[in-house]
Amino acid sequence: xxxLLLLFLILFVSSCASGPVYKxxxxxxxxxxxxxxxxxxxxxxxLNAIIKQLMIKGFNVKTTxxxxxxxxxxxxxxxxxxxxxxxxxxxxxxxxxxxxARDIVIYNTDPIxxxxxxxxxxxxxxxxDANIIASNATVGASLYIKDAKTGDIVWTNSYxxxxxxxxxxxxxxxxxxxxxxxxxxx
Length: 186
Fold this sequence. Notes:
By secondary structure, the protein is α+β, with helices and mostly antiparallel strands. It has two domains: about 1-80 and about 135-180, Double Stranded RNA Binding Domain; about 85-135, no CATH class. About 25% of the residues lie in helices and about 35% in strands. It contains three helices and nine strands. It has helices spanning about 1-20, 45-55, 165-180; strands spanning about 20, 35, 60, 70-80, 85-90, 120-125, 130-135, 135-145, 155-165. It has a six-stranded mixed β-sheet, sandwiched between helices. Strands 5-7-6 form a three-stranded antiparallel β-sheet, with no helix packed on it. The longest helix has 17 residues, at about 1-20. It is elongated. It starts with a helix and ends in an 8-residue tail after the last helix. The relative contact order is 0.21.
């Protein structure tokens, strides 16, 4: 088990730097059936997106472990931040004279967490003297695929994706990770 974890970490680190990593002498054309493994570090929505993308690619996908599968797909969710929205009150009029109409000023004594890297001003809220500020959802995942018969890890990739909402972030990260699976031999 320790060797498998060490191999996974080595493949994960190298995949962050250079994209997908795969076993060069493995025959990916023989893969017809996949088992998507559930673990504590995975998320059901991410697993469902993996199943969907594998089916789109033409694989027969099983959710119960059986002896007649070719590969086992394992996923680790590395980041999972839903989009957020905040109601931000504008400062009293005496503080407005030094800023332009495009400036966003947060007038609040409490710290406000904003997840995601892109933050948007959605405009005035319900005619109040306040704005709605929103941030994107972010999902990161790392997948590795092993041969069901030998236990050898044959492919791995990871990515982090930012979407307008959680659903689009999950779909985007899984689609991007699996777009290079199976690898095309040149």
